[in-house]
Amino acid sequence: MTRVTVWNEFRHEREDEAVREVYPDGIHAVIADFLDERGFDVETATLDEPEHGLTEDVLAETDVLTWWGHDAHDEVSDEVVERVRERVLDGMGLVVLHSGHFSKIFKRLMGTTCNLKYREAGETERLWVLEPGHPIAAGVEESVEIPETEMYGERFDVPAPETLVFTSWFEGGEVFRSGCCYTRGAGKVFYFRPGHETYPIYRQPEVQQILTNAVEWAAPSDGPAPSFGKHSTPATEE
Ligand code: ZN
Fold first, then answer.
1. Centre of ligand 1 from the C-alpha of residue 142, in Å
2. Does residue 20 lie in a domain region?
3. pLDDT, tens digit, for every residue of 160-219?
4. Cα of 86 from ligand 1 centre, angstroms
5. How far is Cα 1 from Cα 61, in angstroms, rounded to an integer?
6. Which domain CATH number covers 202?
7. Which end of the chain, C or N, has fewer beta carbons within 10 A?
8. What is the Å distance from ligand 1's center to 98 Cα?
């Protein structure tokens, strides 16, 4: 069974009444619930826990980590970021959500600014599937409408994705690469755009389907451990 740790900054929900109405127990609780219902072994972790809830032991027992952060990226300790990065290189999957584009871990893994355009005007988003054969698009319609969301627009300053599964169109005319797949070391990384904290986007069934697929896709595969360094010629048998 795939072990998932759902990480959330969990500040907006405690500090802002409008966000608390949408996610009374936190964004992580909603994500953890639907992943649990779909058969994953799910734990949650939040910023204000010791070591942000991401101790060596927790990460060692995590196959896929999902990450939602926004206001307090700078409060995530560099030590924990490095610990997560090493686990990703070692094979742990990472699913980065929405404003997590500016998290230390995502910027570190991408090596670019990860900057973008944004506008908070409750616009409609239409998420188009570009790769219908990709596992993250399984069970999803050709396009998914999100009735009200924050706009993110190009340019999104990330490396070209290895696979671009979704592109978004917004009412205001902008477009955005909303579902980006990467590999870093043995780990798979998926960035998924939708999910602003004042809209119930993680309660939408299509979004839950996509995130379920993303967690399955990002789970470690059982590949060989690579060897590095000076490599001697195999002894020839006489
Ligand atoms: Zn947002």
1. 24
2. yes
3. 999 999 999 999 999 999 999 999 999 999 999 999 999 999 999 999 999 999 999 999
4. 27
5. 12
6. 3.40.50.880
7. C
8. 6
